[in-house]
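Please study the protein below:
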Amino acid sequence: MKKFLISTILLIALSTSAFAQQRPPAPPHPSKTQLYNSKLNELNKRYNTEKKLITNHPVATKKMKQDQLRALNERYQNEKRLLKAAK
């Protein structure tokens, strides 16, 4: 009886440890359009926040703001073009 009890406990312990080592299923990979849309949303959000920071800057002159916005728009267009090319 003692051997049976020990072997049963050992069997349960081994089965639970083997069950605990199983990996969860891998999450589904996003499709190419979903990935593109998420990257585009991030790009637009970053562009809008930077634009808001530039326009609301208390010390910058009008000319400085224009130059910074021009550079920001140019960089935004380049990044958008690269994103479309990768699509």
Summary: The chain has three helices and no strands. The two ends are 68 Å apart (CA to CA). The chain has a mean pLDDT of 87. Residues 27 and 35 are 14 Å apart (CA to CA).
